[in-house]
Design goal:
The complex is a heterodimer of chains A (366) and B (313). Chain A folds into two domains: 221 residues, 3-Layer(aba) Sandwich (Rossmann fold); 131 residues, no CATH class. Helix content of chain A is 23%, strand content 34%. Classes of the chains: A alpha+beta (366), B mainly alpha (313).
Amino acid sequence: MNTAAQAPILEIQDAVHSYGSVLALDHVSLRVEPGEFVSILGESGSGKTTLLRLISGLEQAQSITRLAIGGQSVIGKPPAQRNCTTVFQSYALFPHMSVEENVAYGLKVRGVARAEALRQAREALAVVRLEAKAQRSIGQLSGGEKQRVALARAFVIRPALLLLDEPLAALDEKLRIDMQSELVEIQRSLGMTFIFITHSKEEALTMSDRVVLMRRGRVEQIGPPVALFDSPSSLFAAEFMGFENLLGGRVLDTRDGTALIELANGTRIRSRVGGDQPLQAGVDAGIAVRAEHLRLISAAGTNAPAGVNALPCEPSPAAYRGKYTERWADTPAGRLKLRNWEGKNVDVPSADTVIWEVEDSIAFPA
Amino acid sequence: MSTSIPDTQAQVAPPSLAAKTPWRTLLGRIDWPLALFLVAWFIAVVVPLLGVVVYSFFETKSFFTVYTPSLNTWASIFDSGRFEVILRTLRIAFTVTAVELVLAFAFSLWLAKGRASRTVKAMTLALMTVPFFLDLSSRTIIWRAILGENGPLIPLLTGIGLVEPGSAGILYSEWAVHFGMIIALFPTMMLPVYIAISLVDDTLIDASNDLGASPWQTLTRVVIPLSLPGVIAGILFTLGSAMAAWVEPSMLGGGFVNLLSNSIESAYSALRYPVLAALTTLIVMILGVLVLAFVLIGRRFGDLSSSFRVLRS
């Protein structure tokens, strides 16, 4: 996709916002292309909801260089004059209106005639498969249905940008997974740009074209889900993406996107470099490895196979976890976690070394 | 065909249930708290009221009540100019309620959804309850000094240029009575309206703004419909109190502005209990008609119970 030719649907440059003494957004910039599904991922308090409220206009930024929706600057404009709508976490459906009146609300306040507004509302309800419940009152709907009404109410006015504030957080497990794929389908069929706030790594990775990982009001890493999952650019990103084993050391040398790192105990590890910035020789670096990428072998004093990293270790007995087994291995560099998905009989007798591929470990500036 | 139904029931129901006497199953079905409430309400409210209604068909002759049913007392109410008093009372009560509604809604909207800080809100609400601890007469009597001929109001208004020098005060006029009642009944209207408005979820207002509504549209389409229960409660409380107002008309009206309560009071001191009963019946009937009208109006503007649903969450 050639995105360079298209104007971005959303441009944020250098947004700063604070509540009292708490800095909620710390120089955040973001560009979103038309038709993208972008997730903003972060823990509570990371500033993701503040960013959303800044875009929708429910909050005015204390300092911002540029905020444009569809190429037009919306700095200082009230929410009603911005070409974007929000799906609220609590749904915020009007309890005194029926389902179709809720959906038609945005059209009616824009002066669309009642009959036409209700017709479009029913069309939107058909997209979310709720046309049969158009006359119901809000109190008669289940959580998932409320969610879909809120979605229909937001997209029926055809905004350039749809903002979703943790819309799946209140749903139960099964419904959440169904809604994940449904949301993506709706987004594809409408061709609309979605900005999706979530604290769930799984939601962000499965639904989005790009993920924005936020931490303490700053953007930690932006990239496609695969890049975030496989190549975190910082210790926080690695931890958030579920890397169980984190080691620290000093960079000795870099070559072909890999770095040679000396751990505190003197062991040398070769690792792929994550993120975009190259590692300089001599700086401190972190290394992350997933538990399932570690393997035990019995080296019995011989040298480890070439091209892999190896650490001598003392493994603990495997703990059964249903679909997989887990065990700890004590190495001179610290305790490592191992996970095995391959079934029962994989115990290596007299295992004394843990190994992993260079490709499977990620290095980033510490 | 009719026998087949008991057959199937006998198959399903265990024998012990079938053996139970019908009145026992009936007792089990009664909603006891509701039944007790209805009985208590009947004894405490309906029975005395019925007594009052019955009494209004008796009459008084030389300070003795004659227990012969007649319409003489009712006829005397409409002959003696008391009917004018009723109309005046209704007019003043409605005017006061309308003015209160506008003032209290605007004030509550600012306090509940404006930029008032938490401290300002708490202080204002606390101040609003202060009048409930003070006697109405002592609160009202001070206005006699202020509104009277020698009070500070006339020099003040003259100073601004609103009235000509040497004008009489507004004391002992309908203006003064209206004024006194608006001051006294403000918390009565404001507190229920404030509670209803503050219960309107902020995210609903956010959602309305976000969907493109102007502040006016958000007010008329979201805030007002959702605060309707409080508004109706406020109107009924204020209207009821305004119709029963006694202190303001006697202290600030000075006998020139006679309202229903003054009429009742004079009947009471003259020991004319049937007149008292007839006037009371009339007030209850008027209030009943008003409540009914509100229910009907509420229905026109959509299902009233749906606006009460907000209070549940």
